[in-house]
Amino acid sequence: MIKFSNVYKRYPGEMDALQDISLEISSGELIFVTGPSGAGKSTLLKLISAVEKPTSGTIIFENQNLNYLQKNEMPFLRRKFGMIFQDHKLLFDRTCYDNVALPLAINEIDPSDIGRRVRAALNKVGLLTKERVMPMSLSGGEQQRLAIARAIVSRPSILIADEPTANLDRGYADEIMNIFYSFQQVGVTVIISSHEIPKTTIHYKEFHLITGNLQNVPLLT
Ligand SMILES: Nc1ncnc2c1ncn2[C@@H]1O[C@H](COP(=O)(O)OP(=O)(O)OP(=O)(O)O)[C@@H](O)[C@H]1O
Ligand SMILES: [Mg+2]
């Protein structure tokens, strides 16, 4: 589904954030991207979701070489990804409902469908009773769950989360991870960056980065 071949990423004026990365991700897999701060985890997730372009090397997504992606093909590609950012980027001047509805409005979904889908997403993360509340009054774990609801409302086939539990206590963290696992169980490809592997009984693949280099490359299947 996703294949990196000898991918390098260098930000202007910086050292290589990623060096010679070759990896493969199959549909439906659970992937953890691990490594210390600055290792390149966020950069790898941004390359996977085509938020950033590689400096060199090729990235193939569903048989399409992203190097040759046209600007007008971008929105179509983006729709397949649900992103949860490191700083979850909620809109604090809008209600929970409006935060989750935003991607649907952008994607020109039939208005009569929006309410049903927003509530289904809020329900999935246990926030249905909070739809009229402003995000500021939610707890840290609830804000993170709201970011997940916004990422899943477009029914993406790939869910990408950048350190979704970094600022949460253990109880909240387990709860958030279980939401991700439930999506993987119904066929969504789930890619999560994290300083270390959380507790799970599900079969997963780990990509461990150290200063931009992939360690212990898993066997490609
Ligand atoms: N937009 C940017 N412009 C310039 N340099 C960047 C940019 N984003 C990341 N970098 C650099 O690339 C390297 C990798 O950063 P990245 O954010 O991918 O690491 P990370 O593993 O996600 O770290 P953390 O665990 O702290 O989130 C770092 O040296 C960082 O300074
Ligand atoms: Mg990061």
Order of SSEs: EEEHEEHEHHHEHEEE
Shape: globular
* Strand fraction: 25-35%
Number of strands: 10
Tally the helices: what do you get? 6
Relative helix content = 25-40%
The structure class reads alpha/beta
What is the spatial order of strands in the main beta sheet? 6-7-8-3-9-10
Q: Taking Cα atoms only, what radius of gyration do you get, to the nearest Å? A: 17 Å
**Span of the ends, CA to CA:** 12 Å
Low-pLDDT stretches are none
Q: Strand count, sense and closure of the main sheet? A: 6 strands, mixed
Bound molecules: adenosine-5'-triphosphate, magnesium ion
Average pLDDT confidence is 91
Summary, kept brief:
The chain has a domain at 90-155. Helix content is 30%, strand content 25%.
Report on the architecture of this protein.
Helices cover 30% and strands 25% of the residues. It has 6 helices and 10 strands; from the N terminus they run βββαββαβαααβαβββ. With 221 residues, it is an alpha/beta fold. The model has no long low-confidence stretch (mean pLDDT 91). It has helices at residues 41-48, 74-78, 96-106, 111-124, 140-152, 170-185; strands spanning 2-10, 16-25, 30-34, 56-61, 64-65, 81-84, 158-162, 189-194, 205-210, 213-215. It has a domain at 90-155. The strands form 2 sheets. Strands 6-7-8-3-9-10 form a 6-stranded mixed β-sheet, sandwiched between helices. Strands 2-1-4-5 form a 4-stranded antiparallel β-sheet, with helices on one face. Helix 3 packs across helix 4 (111-124), helix 3 (96-106) runs parallel beside helix 5 (140-152) and helix 4 packs across helix 5. Magnesium ion is lined by residues 41-42, 86, 162.
